[in-house]
Structures are given as structure tokens and as C-alpha cells.
Design goal:
With 104 residues, this protein is of the alpha+beta class. Helices cover 18% and strands 25% of the residues. A five-stranded mixed sheet has the order 1-2-3-4-5.
Length: 104
């Protein structure tokens, strides 16, 4: 796994297949996508290389359901972190909706 600083506070985690991103705030991390299955140890290592703890991951955002984006989510969710839904009263998963009637 390769760790690349894209912008201050934004890091790319490039796996053999797929990628993920880490957004770093002063007091927490957000994992954007989780890479393929088996990625959690590499994610934890990347977090430590930034001088943070895996438990600093407070949010996991999945952009879509392809294996290389969601495959490591179950493992990543096992990394000790905050509550599963940081937005109380709002869904933690946005359901897919059919396209409007104008699509053909």
C-alpha cells in the first residue's frame, strides 16, 4: 500500500487494487472508501505513519458499492472508533433511488 499526501489533511491510500482516502482533522480522521477486503491492517499502518491512532477514525464514508471501495468496510468498522452514525437522526446509508421519469 502506498500513502500519498494529495493536499494538506487529505491522503490517498493506494492499494494493489483500488484506493481509499483519509481526511485528517485536528481531533479525528475520516476514511473515504475502505479499499478491497483485507485492507484494515494497511489502513491502520497508514494511520500510525501519520502519527495518529486507528481509533482516531471517527467516520467511514463509502462512495459506492464496488468491491475495491467497500470490500474492507467490515474490517475497517472493527477498528475501534466513535459511534457508527455521527449524524444522529439522519441515515448512515443513503438508499439508491430510481432515476426520474425523464431518463430513458
Amino acid at each position: 500500500m502506498e500513502l500519498v499526501e494529495v493536499l494538506p489533511q487529505l491522503y490517498l491510500l493506494r492499494f494493489n487494487v483500488g484506493q481509499a482516502y483519509l481526511w485528517s482533522d485536528a481531533d479525528s480522521l475520516t476514511l473515504i472508501d475502505s479499499g478491497p477486503g483485507g485492507s484494515a491492517p494497511a489502513i491502520a499502518e497508514a494511520v500510525r505513519s501519520l502519527g495518529r491512532r486507528p481509533g482516531d477514525i471517527q467516520r467511514i464514508i463509502i462512495t459506492h458499492g464496488h468491491e475495491d471501495h467497500v470490500g474492507g468496510a467490515a474490517e475497517a468498522a472493527g477498528i475501534p472508533r466513535g459511534p457508527p452514525n455521527p449524524w444522529p437522526g439522519r441515515p448512515s446509508w443513503i438508499p439508491r433511488r430510481p432515476a426520474s421519469g425523464t431518463a430513458r
